[in-house]
Amino acid sequence: MKTKSKQAIREWVESIVVAFLLAMLIRTFVVQAYRIPTGSMRMTLIEGDIIMVNKFLYGAKVPFLNWRLPAIRQPKKGDVVVFIYPENPRKDFIKRLVATGGETVEIHNGTIYVNNLPLVDSTFSQRYYYNRGNYCLEGEKVIVPKDSYFVLGDNSVSSQDSRYWGFVPKDNIRGNAILIYWPLNRIRMIK
């Protein structure tokens, strides 16, 4: 009888350890859940939304090593990205990618111009962007450094973003926000 109990306990412990290891691998390299803490991405994302972030798409970082897995594709304009906040590496931020390395960014009369062309995609054209912070003041063009990104919150009036603290280094990108899965009445793909 004791051997059957020991065997059952051993099987339970093995199952729990395997499940834990699989969960950690998935969380580290494939997808991770994040809670939205502020209204900087309203109305795309609101406070309290819980989202899934695809880490695999851009090449997940390997813990304790300074390298990444191969990426399926690079981040592009319009992607909603989660990244390590450049001014505090213990915080993650979420914003919309506006420009990549080598491009120029200007905000004029509420419209974003990249390389002197307005972003006409509805993702950008239906929002008004304010000239605030230290970057992209009225009449000022900013050049995004190589291997960096310029990001803005969808709620321009209350977003601390690249206008205030500058650029997101490529190595700080964690992943692409793909899905709101909580609360249930807000389940949808993120565009």
Structure description:
- The mean pLDDT is 92.
- The protein has three helices and twelve strands.
- The chain starts with a helix and ends with a strand.
- The strands form two sheets. Strands 1, 2, 3, 4, 9, 10, 11 and 12 form an eight-stranded antiparallel sheet that branches. The protein has a four-stranded antiparallel sheet with strand order 7-6-5-8, with no helix packed on it.
- The protein has helices spanning 2-29, 122-125, 162-165; strands spanning 31-35, 50-54, 80-84, 92-100, 104-108, 111-114, 117-118, 142-143, 148-152, 168-169, 173-182, 188-189.
- The protein has a single domain, classed as Umud Fragment, subunit A.
- With 191 residues, it is an alpha+beta fold.
Concise description?
By secondary structure, this protein is α+β, with helices and mostly antiparallel strands.
Provide tags for this entry.
3 helices, alpha+beta, single chain, 191 residues
Low-confidence regions? none
CATH superfamily: Umud Fragment, subunit A
Which percent bin holds the helix content? 10-25%
Multimer state: single chain
**SSE string, helices as H and strands as E:** HEEEEEEEHEEHEEE
Largest sheet: 8 strands, antiparallel
Find the structural class using helix and strand composition: alpha+beta
- Put simply, the count of helices is 3
Instruction: Measure the end-to-end span.
Output: 58 Å
CATH topology, by name, is Umud Fragment, subunit A
CATH class designation: Mainly Beta
Tell me the total number of β-strands: 12
Coarse shape? elongated
- What does the radius of gyration come to? 20 Å
Strand content: 25-35%
Mean pLDDT: 92
Count of discrete structural domains = 1
- For the record, the CATH architecture stands as Ribbon
